[in-house]
Amino acid sequence: MDVSRRGYLTRVLVVYLGASYAVLEITDIFIDQIGLPDWFFPGVIVLLLFGLPIVVATALVQTRSRQAEAVESEASRHEEASAAGAWTDGESARTEPATHWLTWRKAIVGFVAAFAIWGLVVAVYMTMRAVGFGPVGSLVAAGVLEERERIILAEFQNNTSDPLLAQAATEAFRIDFSQSPIVTVMDPASVDQVLIRMQRDPGQPLDAELAREVAIREGVKAVVDGEITPVGRGFVLSARLVAAQDGKVLTAHRETARDTSALIGSIDQLSKKLRERMGESLKTIRANEPLDQVTTTSLEALRMYSQAVHAADMGNNERAIALLEEAVAVDTAFAMAWRKLGIVLGNIERDRAREVEALTKAHEHRDRLTERERFMTLGSYHSAVTDDNERAIAAYQSLLEVYPNDTWAMNNLAILYLEARDYRRANQLFRRAVEWDSAGGALYYGNVVTTQVALGDFDGANLTLERFSERFPEHPSAALSAASLASSRFDYETAREHVLALREAQRASEFWQIGTSFQLAQIAEVQGRLAEAEQYLQEAMAVAAAQGQGNMYVGGAIRIAFYDVMLRQNPDVALDRIAAALERYPLSSLKPHERPYGGLALLYALTGQQGRATSLLAEWDSAVDRTLRGDNGAEEAVARGVLALSEDRPQAAIAEFRLADTGPCEICILPLLGMAFDAAEQPDSVIRVYEKYIETPWLTRLGENDWWALAGIYERLAGLYELNGNTEEAVRYYNRFVELWQDADPELQPRVDAARRSIERLSAEPASAEAGP
After folding, report:
1. Is the predicted pLDDT of residue 349 greater than 80, yes or no?
2. Is 336 found in the same domain as 246?
3. Burial level of 44, CB count in 10 A (0-12/13-18/19+)?
4. Of 382, 440, 544, 600, whose CB count within 10 A is highest?
């Protein structure tokens, strides 16, 4: 080949390779932006490879053709010269004309036709997929599934010798599937609630048959089940989507993994194939990070995580915490395990420091989370660690834009609205969560009741509780909510009946025995039966001591000591009681963030021990980081306010109590604020604050303040109205006080007798026309 032909061919190849690169780049953009199938790119590469020899051949032919044309042109010039008498050698220099069957025009037309046919194939495929036609049609487009349809994920069938491998594979599959906006995987906790209603053991493996039973009961159309089988050193993983009613296989796929290290990646591919067949956009599937990058590369850590999730769903929080601690020890960047650890610790209000650390770790490694988990982590981190509720709200709102039926996001966002006292918006979100997840919405039902009461809708709250009890007849939270609803309407006998029924039903549960002891103590406290209340608290304290929970033991002692101060007017007994508790569990033996600094400071201030109260507040400030307090400084402000009251500084107390007026409960600070106004000799403000406290509905008011404050508020309002000359209101509040404390302990009966005498005296007087403020 001469130099000119070689140079021409080189230029042609350079142009072709450059054009091929541009075509591949455009193809890649189309695949990402439009969501074309994965096989479109290899098809384009094949076409370009087939085109390469055609380009080379065309270049060679065209080179020869040009040379032939040049020779022919030279021969023509020789003929013209001969005709003019020019000398020749007598021989023509003509050559045969070049062959023109392979031209650039034909090559270009061929390329265009080939790519057009390939594009047509892809267009037909995409059309069939979009309309749900044929074997490639999406199940959503075909009407087999609705968009955002609920599905149930059964536990993978385990054909290996590793009993935990299938459980880990199932959890990994669930994590990847949870990223799909086309379907919603039913939460395991919701499935457990259905199993309980079916009188089946929620701890048993959810195999394909049982998953179908649950699906049929709950109106879920389809179940995903899978299988993991060893093949040599590797595994074959399969998954299929099955119609719940008749067991018909709607679609099935399989993947292979060369060994355990490749297992997570294979699960990722298997899940994505199933999601594509269901109808999820290829664009959104590709937007998800690989599963091993958003979970963990350690199968061992994933095993522990899957076991922890199951333990938490079954209420075994201690085991869940231990497993999660092991998982993050194996993979310190396992963000999902860090987040779950923080949530479990927060739910049981145990080890605030570890909770903050876990959520902070999850936040630091949030790039290793799925999009959903990333938003959930941001919400948890900002609400529980930084107290930046605006950013937490933004995170949950962003999550709901992508996954509008995510009930956990609805619930957590609603809680933030509740914190902001936007009860109406919180109620709407809680109700949405119930409607979408009626199977596992026990938590949501209770939250709906909370917001309905806050809005004054007691009839609606009763209806919600009826639905709650029908849906979850044995769920302890239903009885607890019923007791709270009764006590929020000052019906303590009904509340007591509900708590006693709960106590009997949960007699095997240590947790609920402690909880019901506190509930029964509160009901006895508000009615002035302090000896009975103390007995219940002593029972709870004994259990706490047996469990080594010194902070709970000291907290119980502080509560009883408040009886001595606020109701029995016996501060010396209160101080002796606290001294005995602290001798058994010194503050130094407790974790700094678990030490009851606030309660002790309150008690010491109320008993005239201002120096000790001030010292405790200073120690609290230096020993406990503010991020570990979790109440935005409200408890500390309350303690400072009570200290100011004890030092006869009512205006300072009022300012501190206003600072403490945060969180969802708009009446919780009012009893103390009324006391401060009373000390400041502002009776009109006292009446206004106390009236608001009584008239404003709140579900958990008994446990917040009624247990110690309600009787005194009735008594004080009656006295203030009597001073104002408003006999009618004075009698009304004296009557409410007498009714509340009619069965109070003998030591409190002198106050009841005094109220009865006031009622007799005022009732005998002419009614006053003067109205209260």
Report:
1. no
2. no
3. buried
4. 600
Distance, CA of 83 to CA of 70 (rounded, Å): 20
pLDDT of residue 103: 78
Residue-range definition of the domain harbouring residue 116? 3-80+97-131
Query: What is the rounded CA–CA span in Å between residue 268 and residue 249?
Result: 21
SS3 content of the chain, % helix, strand, coil (to 5): 70, 5, 25
Same domain, 322 and 458: yes
Same domain, 115 and 192: no
Cα–Cα distances in angstroms (integers) from residue 524 to residues 145, 521, 670, 736, in the given order: 54, 5, 22, 16
Cα–Cα distance, 241 to 278 (Å, whole number): 9
Determine the straight-line distance between the first and last CA of the chain, rounded to whole angstroms. Answer: 112
In a domain, 702, yes or no: yes
The C-alpha atoms of residue 319 and residue 325 are separated, in whole angstroms, by 10
Give the pLDDT of residue 256. Answer: 92
Tell which of 229, 262, 294 closes a domain. 294
**Which distant-in-sequence residues (6+ apart) come within 8 Å of 364 by Cβ?**
335
- Confidence at residue 772, expressed as pLDDT on a 0 to 100 scale: 45
Tens-digit pLDDT profile for residues 468-484: 888 877 778 889 999 99
218: domain CATH number? 3.40.50.10070
The angle subtended at Cα 596 by Cα 591 and Cα 600, nearest 5°, is 140
The answer to whether residue 492 scores a pLDDT higher than 70 is yes
pLDDT tens digits for 112-158?
Answer: 888 888 778 877 777 776 666 666 667 777 777 777 788 889 989 98
SS (H, E, C) 140-164: CCCCCCCCCEEEEECCCEECCCCCC
Phi-psi region at 765: left, alpha or beta (left = phi > 0; alpha = psi -120 to 50): beta
Q: Has residue 90 got a pLDDT over 50?
A: no
- How many residues are there in the chain? 773
Nearest to 153 by CA among 204, 102, 198, 220: 220
pLDDT in tens, 303-313: 888 888 878 87
Is 743 inside any structural domain?
A: yes
Percent of the chain whose predicted confidence (pLDDT) is above 90? 42
Concatenating the DSSP letter of every residue in 537-599 gives HHHHHHHHHHTT-HHHHHHHHHHHHHIIIIIS--HHHHHHHHHHHHHHS-GGGS-GGGS-HHH
> What pLDDT is recorded for position 246?
86
Does residue 472 belong to any structural domain of this protein? no
Question: What mean pLDDT value characterizes the chain?
Answer: 85
pLDDT score for 193: 74
pLDDT on residue 122: 75
- Total domain count, the chain: 4
Is 591 a member of any domain?
A: no
